[in-house]
Amino acid sequence: MSGHRLVYSTGQGRLCPECARPVAECRCKRSKPAQPVAPKGDGIVRVGRETKGRKGKGVTVVTGIPLAGPALEALATRLKKRCGSGGTVDGGVIEIQGDHRDLLVEELGRLGYTVKRSGG
Fold it and tell me: How far, in Å, CA of 20 to CA of 8, rounded?
């Protein structure tokens, strides 16, 4: 047997397809998670309100922020605390429960972003 590839085992969990080591012990490039990349845009942060797909509940949506990963999560946490409500980061977009457009435009402008209010 030239290739000692393990086909199935319950003892080690997930294995790397390249080196056949457990994923936690893998040292090859393929198993390393990719670094999040900031989305490219026109440099303008847009703050709008959406109700679509939320059973009529409105959320404030912040798009176009040139951050990714932990930096985007930290900004979302700061904005949620400023508004005093919950929210999430979904696909590079910050969603904050409720209508907080004026407050978020003011806060993001204070942080140095070029901000526009979008929608109605």
Answer: 11
